[in-house]
């Protein structure tokens, strides 16, 4: 979304003044403000209704009997994979390039 700076805002206000005239512009500003205020009240009321009707999330209940959490012994060398540099390359097939 583009940022509206002071220069852009001034241009928009001048265009509105030319289009609507100096007598109609205060009325339009007032009605726009009232409309925005009513919209905010409606959205806030909707949010309040949703917060009231939605049940509050509950935390999961921990089991009453706690199981001793002994760490399982993991063999470190059983699953270790070591790679040497350059061994994972495959030599190109020279017969594929012949016509």
Automatic annotation (TrEMBL):
HAMAP family: TatA_E (MF_00236). NCBIfam families: PRK14861.1, tatAE. Transmembrane segments: none annotated. Keywords: Cell membrane, Membrane, Protein transport, Translocation, Transmembrane, Transmembrane helix, Transport. PANTHER family: SEC-INDEPENDENT PROTEIN TRANSLOCASE PROTEIN TATA. It comes from Deinococcus grandis. The gene is tatA. This is Sec-independent protein translocase protein TatA. GO terms for cellular component: TAT protein transport complex. Forms a complex with TatC. Residues 47-99 are annotated as: Disordered.
